Amino acid sequence: MGVLAILGDILWLLALSIMCGASRMAWGKVRDVRVPVLWSPAGKTLWRAPRAVALASLPTFAFLLSLWLLVESRRPVDLNLGIILLCVRALLASIFAMVHLTQVRRALNQLAAEGQIKL
Amino acid sequence: MASEASGAPGPNSAASCDTPPQASHGPKGHGLFALALGSVGIVFGDIGTSPLYAFKEALHTAAHDGVTRAEILGVVSLALWALILVVTIKYVLFIMRADNKGEGGVLSLMALAQRAIGKRTTLVFLLGVIGAALFYGDAVITPAMSVLSAVEGLRTIPALEGKISNQMVMMIAMVMLIGLFTIQSRGTAKVGQLFGPICALWFGVMFALGLYHLVSHPDILRAFNPYYAVSFLIEHGLAGFLVLGAVFLTVTGAEALTADMGHFGRWPIQAAWLFFVLPCLFMNYLGQGAFALSEFDAAAAGGREFQELNWFFEMAPQALRLPLVILAGAATVIASQAVITGAFSLTQQAIQLGLLPRLDVRRTSETQSGQIFVPQLNTMLLIGVLTVMVTFQTSSALAHAYGLAVTGTMIVTTMMAYIVMRRLWKWRLPAALAFLIPFMALDLAFLSANALRFFTGGWLPVLIGAALFAIMTTWVRGSQILTDKTRRDSVPLVDLMEILRARAPHRAPGTAIFLTSDPDMTPVALMHNLKHNKVLHERNVVLTVRTAETPRVADEDRIRTQAINADFKKVEIFYGFMESPNVPKALALLRKQQGLKFDIMATSFFLGRRSIVPSANSGMPLWQDRIFIFLMKNAANPTDFFKIPPGRVVELGAQVTV
Predict the structure, then answer these.
(1) Are strands B372-373 and B535-547 parallel, antiparallel or unpaired?
(2) Which runs of consecutive H residues, i.e. helices, occur in B43-98?
(3) What are residue B520's phi and psi, to 5 degrees?
(4) B150, B452, B493, B520: which could form a disulfide with B328 (CB 3.0–4.6 Å)?
(5) Contact list, A79 vs chain B (CB under 8 Å)
């Protein structure tokens, strides 16, 4: 059980590191501009947010979620539920990392194309 | 005023270990062929209309910087292998075996997993709720997506070329869907008889169209080699992942294979899939690929750029395009109907399992138990579908939103199936992991591919799912708090007996039935009757309606009675989570089975009504309190829900904080 919980912790640590790394990299490049966050399927920007909101909100939410999952994974459960919980943690960690990377990458490319920042 | 959860299905009302055995339920009386044909209309409507848009979207995503032969083969190969791995191996071979007394679907599987574990666990419960919530997101998108893609076929008719605008397509699709949602209240039993034959014709036409193009380019059969799929993904990196998200559209609707098991049985669905639906889908995707290869060769020979087409419709000769669009329209309406019916059925299950408040569930057929109509949900779905249509406007735009909800539900299904394998089927750990690891990896690949579209439309089903998740968890938590409070403020029934023995009240003639969710405590209505009216009936029944973790309950297991003393009797009525409670019918059964004498028209039903007041210190934040109170106020009247004659009901109220 302990091994499964630690495996989940490692996955979340990796995911949070990736997310924070991406935000930190983008943070220095984005100054005094509103960062695109949401797009229509046609590519039109639907929402731009201040730098802190655009780059930090998802990692913060992910961090809080990871803490909750960390606490939950320390509760005594049987092996099967432990495996399922590990699957849930692994899925969420990878999805959060991927979604954040996609957003940061797309936002930076768009801002560079608009001439607002230099990559 | 909101009504007391008197006998209402709630988190505590579900029977667990003491669940009575359940009646065998199966599609008896029909031949395998008839059931398989019926399933073609209902079960495979959604997955059967995917060829309208799946290949087009996948190739469009792959061809943003031009296209090669290997890419066309890669996309077709991915589509074929998605159908083989996800639908055939995962669902047909494994998940369909995990039925809950013949019923499938995410909530049914959740109930089965809970039963397998032997207790209610938060993890399994949350996973079930997430799966159900995501299904509603899917139910809003599927009708919009499929009907829009069919109507867009009008553009491929030469006489209408350039004359059909996006707005016109949207208007036609809206009229079709408004019509479909409007007729729901009348039931679809009669029209439904045509669904099977129409869908069978649809699959036949898809097969013929595929074959027609396959003959001209048989080398497309090389797409059966998974090498093309794998090398496509390896060579294209992130772009390949985006294509995978579009390829996933080929398997949307696979959940219906298990969700509709109760109606048709496992074998007819499996037979229809393996021997009819899968070959037709294979042939059509191969045909679309062959057609794309022909266009690619023609473009290369003519020195022009490869042009993207509406591959499905343009496969047909021009003269047949109009009938094909009409047939596609009919098929997509049937697919939408299947999703709407699925949403009604899921809602009924959610109400019975205590995940949603009581809603008005109406039967639209006297003979068919699956024919139900939920007016509030119907209206909400219609508003949702129309909003989605106006927001996204085209099927290509909607394709970005599609997929994420379906993958979420599929992942939940995989996890639940693992628990069932381990705990119910007693599979050894390595065997169960041999199922879990590859399929979780596959699900993760599809989920990640769909997650890339999160910011361009994928947020929509997640938003709908999150809203439904918040509603369900609030309802469950609020009900729990309410039950705990009521229990705390009530007197145990045995103590009341002692008090009544010491100070006998006035007796009124007749029978009083007190509905309660907690038969060990004195019902609020009984307390109020004694306190304010100072009377006790000659015969008193404390009645509790419970929901079993099985779809149906046999009549012989429906009722349990326990005499407390000469004046009081405890009665528990059990219903499966697929059944609608009917208290008078159950009491008639009680009379027949146990000879209990009472006249329903000389019996008073006492219900407690509670006025809920929000409080910041009662366990839930205020915003959740407000949601809970809103849900309570809008819940169906227990008199209607339990089919109690309204003229025999007395309601007594109290105020409670949550």
Answers:
(1) unpaired
(2) 45-48, 54-62, 69-82
(3) -80, -20
(4) B150
(5) 429
> Which token pair is B204?
């036949």
Whether B457 sits inside 8 A of A43 (CB atoms) is no
* Spans of all domains in chain B: 31-341+378-394, 478-657
d(CA B153, CA B173): 12
Q: How confident is the model at residue B504 (pLDDT cuts 50, 70, 90)?
A: confident
Look at strands B362-363 and B372-373 and give their pairing.
Answer: antiparallel
A105 in contact with chain B, both atoms CB, cutoff 8 A: no
- Per-residue pLDDT, B367: 60
Q: Which of B456, B462, B463 to mutate to test the interface with A (most CBs of A within 10 A)?
A: B456
Exposure on the CB side of residue B449, measured as CA atoms within 13 A: 27
Contact (Cβ atoms closer than 8 angstroms) between residue B521 and residue B491: yes
Mean pLDDT of B47-51: 94
Closest listed residue to residue B124, CA positions, set B134, B115, B114: B114
Tens-place pLDDT, residues A54-92: 999 999 999 999 999 999 899 888 889 999 999 999 999
Which helix H or strand E contains B511, and what residues bound it?
A: strand B506-515
Which tokens hold the place of A5?
């919980």
Contact yes or no for B55/B248 (Cβ under 8 A):
no
Q: What's the pLDDT at B336?
A: 92
φ/ψ of residue A37, rounded to 5: -120, -40
When CB atoms are compared, the residue of A80, A91, A103 closest to B444 is: A91
pLDDT value, residue B370? 62
Q: B419, A80: Cβ pair inside 8 Å?
A: yes
Both tokens of A29, joined, read 């490049």
Token pair recorded at residue B132: 């159900």
DSSP 8-state code for residue B605: E
Q: How wide is the angle at C-alpha B81 spanned by C-alphas B85 and B418, nearest 5°? A: 15
- β-strands B506-515, B362-363: how paired? unpaired
Across the range B105-120, mean pLDDT stands at 88
Q: Is A28 an interface residue toward B (CB < 8 Å)?
A: no
How far B430 CA sits from the closest chain A CA (Å)?
12
Percent with pLDDT over 90 in chain B = 47
Q: What is the CB neighbour count within 10 angstroms for residue B64?
A: 11
* Facing residue for B452 by CB, picked from A41, A80, A98: A98
Q: What number of CA atoms fall less than 13 Å from residue B565's CA on the CB side?
A: 10
Q: Give CA–CA dist B261/B99, Å, rounded.
A: 8
Residues on B contacting A at a C-beta cutoff of 8 Å: 117, 121, 123-124, 127, 392, 396-401, 411, 415, 418-419, 422-423, 429, 432-433, 436, 440, 444, 447-448, 451-452, 454-457, 459
Residue of B nearest to A95 (CA): B448
